[in-house]
């Protein structure tokens, strides 16, 4: 016998199906779980990294740090999520350091100690993330079923990095390909 709370949940499922939020199959699975007495899953969706470590889809910092853990790994595949969160994190950190540098620069271009330190950290940080960034681009090309050598497009003046960024928007091939198993599986 179903209780009042379960009945309300089924009504909510019907409403979600009517609004197009749930597909027919998702609706049936959720309804079957409710009718069997199992509570709906509240765990966050989890993905497996290449090392076999589980990363929650909402753990943004773990996704941003994953390319650093795979520092010079040019083989395998990487998800778009990994690429874009890494790019976001590195650009935010670089932006903050650049703001510190600009804030400590005087009217006549004299930079103070804090600004100089920020520029030194920014320079070394750029060098530190260069290899993981290129490796990540190669893995993204592999995820699309393309050769990692396409990362050399970055060397084209002005338009090269823009072309590569557009390639990074393309979703990967579903299922296994020549470069490894599907990172979304």
Please characterize this protein's 3D structure:
This protein is mainly alpha-helical and 185 residues long. It has two domains: 4-35; 46-168, no CATH class. The chain has helices at 4-18, 24-35, 60-69, 80-103, 113-143, 160-168; strands at residues 46-48, 54-56. Strands 1-2 form a two-stranded antiparallel ribbon. Helix 1 packs antiparallel against helix 2, helix 3 packs across helix 4 and helix 4 (80-103) runs antiparallel to helix 5.
Share of helical residues: 40-55%
The rounded distance between the terminal residues' Cα atoms is: 37 Å
Shape: extended
Query: How many helix segments?
Result: 6
Strand order of the largest sheet: 1-2
Q: Number of DSSP strands? A: 2
Mean pLDDT: 86
Tell me the series of helices and strands, N- to C-terminal: HHEEHHHH
Domain count, please report it: 2
Radius of gyration: 23 Å
Strand content: under 5%
Structural class assignment: mainly alpha
Largest sheet: 2 strands, antiparallel
Instruction: Detail the poorly predicted runs.
Output: none
Summarize the entry for a quick read.
The chain has 185 residues and is mainly α. It has 6 helices and 2 strands, in the order ααββαααα. The mean pLDDT is 86.
List descriptors.
single chain; 185 residues; mainly alpha; 6 helices; 3% strand; extended
Lay out the secondary structure.
Blueprint: H1 4-18, H2 24-35, E1 46-48, E2 54-56, H3 60-69, H4 80-103, H5 113-143, H6 160-168
Antiparallel strand pairs: 1-2
